Amino acid sequence: MKQLLKPDYIFESSWEVCNKVGGIYTVLSTRAKTMQEAFPDKVFFIGPDFWKDKTNPLFTPDDDTLKAWKEHAEKRDGLKIRIGRWNIPGHPIAILVDFSQYYEQKNDIYTQVWLDFQVDSLHAYGDYDEASMFSYAAGKVVESFYRFNLKKTDKVIYQAHEWMTGLGALYIKKNVPEIATIFTTHATSIGRSIAGNGKPLYDYLFAYNGDQMARELNMESKHSIEKQTAHNVDCFTTVSDITNNECKELLDKPADVILKNGFEDDFVPKGDDFAVKRKEARAAMLNLANKLLGTDLDDDTLIVGTSGRYEFKNKGINVYLEALNRLTRDKNLKKEVLAFINVPGWVGEAREDLKERMQSNEKFDTPLHVPFVTHWLHNMSHDQVLDMLKYLNMSNSVDTKVKVIFVPCYLDGNDGLFNMPYYDLMIGNDLTVYASYYEPWGYTPLESVAFHVPTITTDLAGFGLWVNSELGHYGNLADGVKVIHRTDYNYSEVADTIKDTISEFSDLDVKEIEAIRKKASNIAEKALWKHFIRYYYEAYDVALRNKEKRISADK
User: Fold this and answer.
1) How many CA atoms lie within 13 A of 427 on its CB side?
2) Closest Cα to residue 166, out of 211, 222, 238, 241?
3) How far separated are the first and last CA of the chain, in Å rounded?
4) Distance, CA of 146 to CA of 10 (rounded, Å)
5) Distance CA 484, CA 443 (A)
6) What's the CA gap between 479 and 445, in Å, rounded?
7) What count of other Cβ atoms lies within 10 Å of the Cβ of residue 446?
8) Within 10 A of 279 (CB to CB), how many other CB atoms are there?
């Protein structure tokens, strides 16, 4: 075994530092404690400062940390930054940057990155400018820190996450070549777009040309920054073998290292506390359902859930609904099923009529109007979940054994009805379903098994593939993770398999369920960061060695 080169300082830049948006937040926030233990206060997370003068609940300012550099960065380099601690396990140093001042320079910035790296920003729209100006600012922050605090012998890593931070990585390569750069794509922008636009991604992957598809799908600028960053950093990484196949075909660059996504079990209650939390979650979900539906569902009800981003096809929400509809006609179903869809939509406010019922101790025997949704939406007549429920003619009536409830808001503890954070609710599920069509890794099923809740996923998710490789066979319900084979064209078979698996689960006794929950928890243990952090150490080594070669070649 060769001795791995170890960095002295690590900077990580992401749109999701102290900004809870999606799965990358989970990657960074759960890994931070492990990083802090290995590199105490030598890891700096850089994120966008949206809160400015307001209080960001995820960030605690600290005027004493890096005080001399902060004064220098603001006075000499004209940077607008706040320094403090990220309110997560490990409490790492976070640098939040206000990037608004760079908008007036954006044309010059884009021209320069075209001249240096042929990044095409001409066709930019939407969030491209915002992300790019943040990324540029993050690059300037690291340059300033390096010039003020560090010396040439220090081994420094800059890791950029997703296309949104690519411009900063390229800025550093040009302006601070002594820093080794890593770029991590968690999902290729063009792969996600192909899948989301209803085109078959997997059977035809070998035939797609990334640049051509970017033009066809109006994704040229995002694809360009992603591709050029992948080709120009010292180490290019992604999160699973399935996404690496996309990188090879669509970015013309395979990953140097695959950084599997781990988890920390700090979030999971222990001992008696676990049982209490699970009981509270189930009581909350059943209470809401009974008040919304006018039913009397008891604790023997089988509670099933799905969650994640509102990507109707990519996240498999459509096939989940199809399976639930088929389950209503399944003669083998032994229990009442209460199925939740916890997916943030274009949410308005919590329903007042439901809120009033939930504050009452009365029992109700009539459903509320629109007994499928907990919060009013701005687009009630054009919502994909509600449209499909209507199309399937699902009723939530008292006599159907399968009830479906759509919770279209972030479960951050302030939703107006549950007022419980996501993890505090998820622990109450009996089973979860994440039947993804496009899923580079799949944190949601991993989180589920970490909370001892068995899950159904697919082999189009990086997590599903990893489970199969760990088990040596396709995951079954008895393993704690059921992994379904999914292709471009087997939607109906997937729906049937989900239906059959839920039905099978409904017939298990307490002892069998406990055994499955234990197996689920065992799989989660294998995905803890203490096992997966080694892939990051490999990436640091690759980046530092390639940086040395690059510097030597330039001399």
Assistant:
1) 20
2) 222
3) 30
4) 11
5) 17
6) 14
7) 26
8) 13
- Tens-place pLDDT, residues 359-377: 999 999 999 999 999 999 9
Strands 81-86 and 180-185: unpaired
The share of the chain scoring above pLDDT 70, in percent, equals 100
Residue with tokens 């799949």: 442
Six-digit token string for 545 = 């060695």
pLDDT, tens only, 76-105: 999 999 999 999 999 999 999 999 999 999
Give 123-161 pLDDT, tens digit per residue: 999 999 999 999 999 999 999 999 999 999 999 999 999
Find, among 367, 401, 376, the residue nearest to 290 by Cα.
367
CA dihedral 383, 384, 390, 395 (to 10 degrees): -90
Angle value at C-alpha 56, between 50 and 61, nearest 5 degrees: 105
Q: How far apart are CA 226 and CA 184, in angstroms?
A: 10
SS3 482: strand
C-alpha torsion sign, points 105, 108, 110, 113: negative
Indicate the burial class of 327 (C-beta count within 10 angstroms; 0-12, 13-18, 19 or more).
Answer: buried
The predicted-structure confidence for 440-485, as pLDDT tens digits, reads as follows: 999 999 999 999 999 999 999 999 999 999 999 999 999 999 999 9
Query: Which residue is it, tokens 């729906």?
Result: 495
Place of tokens 């274009």: 346
SS (H, E, C) 199-224: CCCCCCHHHCCHHHHHHHCCCHHHHH
Residue 234: which of 278, 182, 280 has the closest Cα?
A: 182
For 377-409, b/e burial (b = at least 16 CB within 10 A) is beeeeebbbbebbeeeebbbeeeebbbbbbbbb
- C-beta separation of 93 from 43 below 8 A: yes
Question: CA 286, CA 263: separation in Å to the nearest integer?
Answer: 29
**Measured distance CA(133)–CA(99) in Å, rounded:** 6
Helix 317-327 to helix 491-506 angle, to the nearest 10 degrees? Answer: 50
**pLDDT averaged over every residue in the chain:** 96
Give the position of tokens 């159907």: 400
**CA gap 250, 208 in Å, rounded:** 7
Q: Half-sphere exposure of residue 68, counting CA atoms within 13 Å on the CB side?
A: 3
Sequence-separated (6 or more) residues with CB below 8 Å from residue 435: 306, 316, 319, 320, 323, 456, 457, 458, 484, 486, 494, 498
The helices-and-strands tally (H runs, E runs) of the chain is: 19, 17
The beta strands (E) that lie in 144-287 are given as 156-161, 180-185, 235-238, 257-258
Cβ-Cβ contacts under 8 Å for 296 (sequence gap 6 or more) = 290, 363
Q: Is 63 left (phi over 0), alpha (psi -120 to 50) or beta?
A: alpha
Question: Contact at 8 Å (CB) between 43 and 96?
Answer: no
Answer for the pair 179, 8: CB distance below 8 angstroms, yes or no.
Answer: no
Quote the CA–CA distance of 508 and 503 in Å, as a whole number: 9
